[in-house]
Design goal:
This protein has 1022 residues and is α+β, with helices and mostly antiparallel strands. Helix content is 55%, strand content 19%. The protein is built from 31 helices and 30 strands. The strands form seven sheets. Strands 1, 2, 3, 4, 20, 21, 28, 29 and 30 form a nine-stranded antiparallel sheet that branches. α15 (497-520) packs across α29 and α16 (524-541) packs across α27 (875-889). The longest helix has 36 residues, at 451-486. The termini are close together.
């Protein structure tokens, strides 16, 4: 080999080249970010529009539908989810993956700007949606000395801006705060006695409180702005504001109202371990580095706590960076332990520290060099890149083992160290290159797999392919060079007792294998038939292996929610939430509990959200899923009526079905049937639909004839009711360096009745007042709290948690039920993990077929014929039996991780067959017949085959046995790969020689002649 010969002749050149790779790798490693997932950006966008007071049905008609009609023609739009709710509407847009997210958002903005919406509606807000919606850190603000208003202002004015300025922070959400407001609480009895309309007060007060730019005073020397300023700065100054109403004596606000220094109406509430807090949820940008961001956040929190020791205390409620750091350390330990075990295997086989040292150099050199490439590609050290590096441990030393073992064999022939290094490298070069390129060929389809899964596994595929290519370079440069220097004649040691015993034991196995192969080669067709039967049985075995999207990872964080009846007052919700919180805190294994009312995605005060932090998995005897299951069952005692529900707080369910129809009654009716069926599926829990119990509103229905007869305007009716029961801003109050709202309203009471509404006096055009009950009737009307659309059609979501391992089976049962029972006019689609699983199966199947094709093409290019590659490719299906059997025995599911492991196996298992067939072809070129060549290849290549297989298994062991953070997914892949390696190695050593012999037997002379000609041409060229 050219590279090997140059490295042997110029050792400093080879050393410096590899040293450069290591230096750049170390520099890159120090600069790489650590994250939980790859930085994947998806083309998602959202549109939200607020219209204060609008009910969901009206919102659907005047906000949602006009926006959907305008957006539905967007280029590249895949799915559009719409929602109309009390006070506004929102739309989530999912574009095809090839669409540029930034351009898509700009297109949405351009279209939305041309939509005509009601003038009282706020301007629509268009945002680019990051793929990771969950907060990376949650904080709680408490104080023993400050009031709620003071804590709220400090949080909004000081803490939130300082956190937002941290690089990588995407959004900072604050819950549970109350801002200061000045309330002008009207005395309705006095107003009625004075015959004064609340509407006339509103206009009068607004005219008395103003800060209005009024032009510019220009002179030769200077121009000065002019403003008319009448902003009150004390409560008394507001109370003294004069009110001048036509035909009425001059009065002041204090004559008919009480002015109070108040707080805005409380709309949310938070506690941490029973202590009231203002909660802060911090989300990162899609490309943000979690550990780095978390470090900066913690430094800023420490500064804030130190600067305000006697004022506030900032508590960390949850911190994802801790899990990521623990997971990173666990994987790092797995890599080091795997590398150590691989080196131990090499030492046991080669029983020489020099050979072992030369081999062991390949691992750090290849790993460290990989960091340089993946850092250049802007990858982070995340679950998938680290998993790729861990799986690569056994592979990285493979090329070095094959090369050093062959050099060692030539050295034992009596050759000099330099001669042995040159001849050994040249002889094994083609096989080593074929093995490496076969593995790289496997990861090209993985790296460019379609769909969301493909985006995530791109970094995994590139990482493994890079590591393997660098290991090949190391095997062709450093290994021959070091062998020529270290394996000189003076280094040969006498064999000790252990070495003699091991060699005797291994030689016995090797001889037994050769004898078995002799017999098997006489029954080639029978052997291949047995192999085919084993493959068929392994496919049948797959039916008994559970299948799921991803193994459940225990991150010690549980989300739990409890929904009360629609319209439940905040005070009642807080009381109920406290009861449930105390129950959860007493549960074994619970470390912290965060409770939020009126926070989260729904923002409804009837939804109680709990974030439960468990102690570390090694400190408890139950899993996260077992805890969730138990607490869901135990918390049923808190359900008091059929309007109350509970479930996991994770909005992304394992099972999710979208029911679509223009007929809402059909949707509602069928969703109930589907929920009943899902609840009968084992391990499916908490099936529910997005259909919420109706909320109720009091609808004021004016009688136009009566209103006209009393000279009452319908707008005056609406404005009067709004002012009294909602409150209307009439100006600003200045204090403490900032402006606060002044609102005019009736005093807030919690015991209001229908008489409070019907007894309202509304003004008429003649200056008089009329009872509302004289011109309107009041009707109690049920309304949907939320109306959902998908692509402009009515939609209802049916979702459930799934705690089993066989998600595919559950989804299949659901789809079968739907196909048999779904009514006419209703369609359905999968969503959530069930949709991802189906998409994953499709994409990975395509990647698997491409991987097999690419491996075959690489082998054809290497061997210059098709018969050798065909015999080698038989080793591929032989790995399935071991994989499926290993998953079944360990009760592991076939998941996305184990499926990627199967694709990885495609490259690994062909390695053994390549080593066998390539050497057999060399011997055939020297004149041996097929069977003689195969028997000699079996003896010579048996040792490197066993060494490389055992080193790969040794590298997998830490993955399988690990109990660290995030070990579940790594173990799933490790078990699949190890099972496949063991079965394919055993079966390959037997079946591939038979297949090769049969294929070559068709035209033995022409093949042998071709091989001899190639060999002569190589000798001539060298």
């Amino acid at each position: 080999m050219f590279l090997s010969n140059v490295s042997i002749k110029r050792p400093y050149f080879a050393s410096m080249i590899n040293l450069v790779i290591i230096i750049f790798g170390l520099i890159s490693f120090s600069r790489m970010g650590i994250d939980r997932e790859p930085n994947v950006e998806f083309p998602y966008a959202s549109v939200s529009v607020n219209y204060n007071g609008v009910n969901p049905k009206t919102s659907e008609e005047i906000l949602l539908k006009p926006l959907e009609d305008a957006l539905k023609g967007l280029q590249g739009l895949k799915t559009m989810y719409g929602s109309a709710f009390q006070g506004g509407a929102s739309i989530f847009l999912e574009f095809n993956l090839e669409i540029d997210g930034d351009k898509a958002v700009n297109n949405v903005r351009n279209i939305i700007s041309a939509v005509n919406l009601p003038k009282d509606a706020e301007k629509p807000i268009v945002k680019k949606i990051e793929s990771n919606k969950k907060p990376i850190m949650e904080l709680g603000i408490t104080s023993k000395s400050l009031s709620t208003q003071e804590i709220s202002r400090f949080t909004l004015d000081e803490i939130k801006p300082r956190l937002q300025r941290i690089e990588g922070v995407g959004d900072v959400l604050v819950y549970g705060y109350q801002d200061r407001e000045i309330h002008i609480n009207l005395n309705s009895s006095l107003l009625n006695a004075m015959q004064i309309s609340p509407n006339s007060l509103k206009g009068n007060i607004e005219n008395q409180i103003l800060n209005k730019p009024s032009g510019t005073l220009r002179s030769a020397l200077i121009n000065m702005g002019i403003s008319t300023y009448s902003i009150p700065y004390t409560i008394d100054s507001i109370a003294k504001i004069p009110i001048n109403i036509k035909d009425k004596p001059l009065i002041r606000i204090e004559d008919f109202a009480t002015v109070t220094n108040s707080l805005a109406e409380e709309t949310s509430y938070s506690e941490f371990n029973g202590v009231k807090t203002i909660s802060i949820a911090i989300k990162k940008e899609s490309k943000g580095n979690i550990l780095e961001i978390a470090t900066h956040i913690k430094k800023e929190i420490e500064k804030l706590n130190n600067e305000n020791t006697n004022k506030i205390e900032i508590i960390t409620l949850s911190d994802d960076s801790l899990y990521i750091k623990d997971s990173f350390n666990a994987v790092l330990f797995d890599i080091i332990l795997g590398a150590f075990l691989a080196v131990v295997v090499v030492f046991i086989f080669l029983h020489d520290w020099r050979n072992t040292f030369i081999c062991s150099v390949a691992i750090p050199a290849s790993l460290i060099g990989t960091f340089a490439v993946i850092h250049y590609l802007n990858f982070t050290l995340n679950d998938l890149t680290l998993l790729g590096l861990t799986l690569s441990i056994g592979i990285l030393v493979d090329d070095a083992i094959v090369v050093i073992e062959n050099i060692h064999r030539h050295k034992l022939m009596g050759k000099s160290a330099i001669k042995a290094a040159m001849d050994g490298s040249a002889e094994i070069g083609l096989a080593a290159l074929a093995v490496t390129l076969a593995i790289v060929a496997v990861f090209v389809p993985i790296a460019f797999m379609e769909g969301i899964v493909g985006r995530y596994f791109y970094e995994f595929g590139i990482t493994v392919a890079t590591a393997v290519l660098i290991s090949l370079f190391v095997a062709f440069t450093i290994v021959p060079m070091m062998s020529s220097k270290l394996l000189n004649e003076n280094n040969i040691k006498k064999e000790n007792k252990f070495i003699i015993l091991f060699n005797q034991f291994f030689n016995k196995i090797q001889n037994n294998y050769q004898n078995i192969l002799k017999r098997i080669l006489k029954r080639k067709k029978t052997t291949i038939l047995i192999g085919f039967i084993i493959f068929i049985l392994s496919v049948l075995l797959l039916n008994f292996v559970p299948k799921t999207f991803q193994p459940d990872v225990d991150d010690s964080k549980v989300y739990f929610n409890f929904s009360l009846a629609q319209g439940t007052p905040l005070s009642t919700s807080i009381h109920r939430a406290k009861e449930i919180q105390e129950f959860i805190r007493k549960y074994p294994g619970v470390e912290n509990v965060s409770m939020n009312v009126g926070a989260g995605e729904s923002n409804s005060v009837s939804t109680l959200n709990f974030t439960i932090i468990l102690v570390k998995p090694n400190k408890r005897n139950f899993t996260k899923n077992q805890f969730t299951n138990h607490i869901t069952n135990d918390a049923k005692k808190f359900i008091r009526n059929d309007k109350e529900k509970m479930g996991s707080g994770d909005s992304y369910k394992q099972i999710q079905v979208n029911l679509i129809s223009s007929n809402k009654d059909a949707l509602n009716s069928y969703s109930k049937k589907l929920i009943e069926f899902i609840n009968t599926i084992p391990d499916a829990k908490g099936a529910t639909s997005s259909l919420q119990d109706p909320a109720y509103e009091l609808r004021v229905l004016p009688n136009r004839l009566k209103a006209a007869s009393f000279d009452v305007s319908l707008n005056d009716i609406a404005d009067t009711i709004e002012l009294l029961f909602k409150g209307v801003k009439v100006g600003n109050f200045y204090a403490d360096g900032r402006f606060y709202d002044i609102k005019i309203m009736l005093p807030i009471k919690i015991n209001q009745t229908m008489n409070d509404l019907t007894g309202v006096l509304v003004p008429n055009s003649k200056g008089g007042q009329v009872l509302l009950s004289s011109v309107a009737t009041i009707e109690k009307v049920p309304v949907d709290p939320q109306i959902e659309h998908i692509n402009g059609n009515n939609m209802l979501k049916v979702s459930a948690d799934y705690y089993g391992k066989d998600l595919e089976s559950a989804v299949h049962k659901i789809e079968s039920f739907i196909n048999k029972t779904i009514p006419f006019g209703v369609t359905h689609g999968l969503d959530g993990n069930s949709e991802f699983f189906k998409e994953t199966i499709k994409n990975i199947s395509s990647a698997l077929l491409l991987a097999i094709l690419f491996i075959f093409m690489v082998l054809c290019a290497q061997f210059e014929n098709m018969k050798a590659p065909l015999s080698i490719m038989l080793s591929v299906p032989l790995s399935f039996s071991g994989t499926f059997l290993a998953l079944l025995i360990t009760n592991e599911a076939l998941s996305i991780d184990s499926m990627i492991g199967i694709i990885l196996l495609m490259g690994l298992v062909t390695k053994n067959a390549i080593l066998l067939v390539e050497f057999a072809q060399q011997k055939m070129a020297e004149g041996l017949n097929v069977e003689e060549a195969l028997l000699e290849s079996a003896v010579v290549r048996f040792k490197p085959i066993m060494m490389t297989t055992l080193t790969m298994i040794a590298g997998m062991l830490p993955l399988i046995l690990s109990s660290g953070e995030g070990s579940e997914a790594r173990a799933n892949m490790g078990i699949a790969v190890m099972g496949g390696l063991i079965s394919s190695t055993i079966l390959t050593l037997i079946i591939v020689p038979c297949a090769y012999s049969l294929l070559i037997g068709f035209k033995p002379q022409s093949i042998r002649t071709k091989l001899l000609m190639r060999q002569k041409q190589k000798i001539k060229n060298s």
